[in-house]
Design brief:
This protein has 368 residues and is α/β, with parallel strands linked by helices. It has eight helices and 17 strands. The chain folds into three domains: 36-128, Roll (Ubiquitin-like (UB roll)); 131-231, Translation factors (Elongation Factor Tu (Ef-tu), domain 3, Beta Barrel); 242-367, Rossmann fold. The protein has helices at residues 3-31, 56-62, 101-105, 210-218, 252-264, 286-295, 321-328, 343-355, and strands at 36-41, 46-51, 81-86, 108-110, 120-123, 132-143, 148-154, 168-172, 184-188, 198-204, 224-231, 242-248, 270-277, 299-305, 317-318, 335-341, 363-367. It is globular. Helix 7 runs parallel beside helix 8. The longest helix has 29 residues, at 3-31. Strand 1 (36-41) and strand 2 (46-51) form a beta hairpin. The chain binds flavin-adenine dinucleotide and FE2/S2 (inorganic) cluster. FE2/S2 (inorganic) cluster binds at residues 69-71, 73, 75-80, 110, 112. Flavin-adenine dinucleotide binds at residues 70, 77, 168, 185-188, 201-204, 206, 208-212, 232, 250, 253, 366, 368.
Length: 368
């Protein structure tokens, strides 16, 4: 084949593929055009006319109804369940791991997976209508360690947030660099629940993570930050004498809020906070927790370094946090445990706690 024949063939192929992509994009627009769809919520208490085509989670968010979601709609957290009585279509493969047989009977579905294509009847717990959106201003950023930043956001004038210490907010990024779409991720509130006009978060950089790269490289003091919340059931129950608190990395965030809550409310609980880290450079808020220990004898702070460097000159507990738990917590009697950190660390700690007599009713956690 001579050169001009090759050129002609390539040109024809390019033209055909360009034509095909135009046809596909027109077909997508036509096929995904579900027009206006009616949503009936809680037996007619609320009726919405929405544009079809998006997931139920994002459609409701546009209507300022915020369903809990920790994974940003990736079908990995299972938090975004709502009961859809009509109009959802069959259960999807991505939903199956999260919807138990009992929940299937109640028509539970993952709202991040179900697309709004036809009229729907939904049941949504009333308390979710209290979740609000906040357009905040980032007023402070501080490096707490080499990979954890503290963000302090000011709520709009006159707006306040009521949350239970331990709960989280949804943080919405803006497009940056090659990331053209907004994403949202869950971050636990690290500030005091009594401080209602500001929110603080502790955000650890995940290599190549969309939201954390945005926070660590693109976000600046003075920028607007969209948040919604509060969400979650990681908060104090307090039906006990002592609270065993365990965290690693940015898992310190909700525990800090919990510790201050107990102190500010004058609750009688003893508290022991086991914080697991690798080396000295992973420790932060050390002075603050040391000061709380001095001021409130009911609180004990136990940082544990798994691999201290010789130059760290570490005098505290050496070894995994699990070893400290094993040695220092005698039994689960009269205690509740509150854990926050990586799934691996939490699973190992929960195993030990259960061996010591803690139960599913006395162990509370957020894994991330
Ligand atoms: C209830 C809840 C509260 C949370 N609170 C906090 C908090 O206070 N502070 C905080 O820093 N994070 C917190 N997280 C985690 C946070 O929501 C994000 O998952 C995390 O910041 C990563 O987001 P990303 O967009 O940067 O990464 P993504 O773009 O979502 O992920 C990029 C890649 O990294 C992997 N990855 C995702 N998360 C992690 C991780 N934590 N470690 C290692 N690899 C990961 C993903 O599987 C993916 O391969 C919380 C999560 C939950 C569920
Ligand atoms: S938002 Fe996480 S599973 Fe739906």
């Amino acid at each position: 084949m001579d050169f001009s024949a090759i050129l002609k063939t390539v040109s024809i192929l390019v033209a055909v593929s360009a034509g095909l992509s135009v046809v596909i994009s027109i077909a997508e627009k036509v096929l995904n055009n579900y027009g206006t769809v009616e949503l009936d919520i809680n037996n007619g208490k609320k009726k919405l006319s929405v544009t079809g085509g998006s997931t139920l989670l994002s459609t409701l968010a546009q209507e300022k109804i915020f369903i809990p979601s920790a994974c940003g709609g990736k079908a990995t957290c299972g938090l975004c369940k709502v009961s859809i009585l009509e109009g959802a279509g069959p259960l999807l493969l991505t939903e199956e791991p999260y919807i138990s047989l009992e929940e299937r009977k109640q028509n539970m579905r993952l709202s991040c997976q179900v697309k709004v294509k036809s009229n729907m009847k939904l049941l949504i717990p009333e308390d979710l209508f209290n979740i609000r959106e906040f357009i905040t201003e980032l007023v402070e950023v501080e490096d707490m360690t080499y990979d954890i930043k503290r963000l302090r956001m000011k709520l709009p004038e006159g707006m306040t947030i009521d949350f239970k210490a331990g709960q989280f907010v949804q943080f919405y990024t803006k497009p940056y660099g090659k990331q053209k779409e907004e994403v949202f991720r869950a971050y636990s509130i690290s500030s005091k629940a009594s401080e209602k006009d500001h929110i603080e978060l502790l955000i650890r950089l995940v290599p190549n993570g969309i939201a954390t790269t945005y926070v660590h490289t693109a976000l600046k003091v003075g920028d607007q930050v969209r948040l919604s919340g509060p969400y979650g059931d990681f908060y104090l129950r307090g039906n006990c004498e002592e609270l065993i608190m365990i965290a690693g990395g940015s898992g310190l965030a909700p525990i800090r809020s919990l510790v201050y809550d107990v102190i500010e409310k004058g609750l009688p609980h003893k508290m022991r906070f086991f914080f697991g880290a690798n080396t000295m450079r992973d420790l932060y808020y050390m002075d603050e927790f040391a000061q709380i220990e001095k001021d409130y004898p009911q609180f004990k702070f136990i940082p544990c370094l798994a691999r201290p460097e010789p130059s760290d000159n570490w005098q505290g507990v050496t070894g995994f946090v699990t070893v400290a738990l094993q040695e220092q917590v005698d039994s689960g009697e009269g205690k509740e445990a509150y854990l926050c950190g990586s799934p691996g660390m939490l699973d190992a700690c929960i195993k030990i706690l259960k061996e010591k007599g803690f139960t599913d009713e006395t162990i509370f956690y957020d894994k991330f």
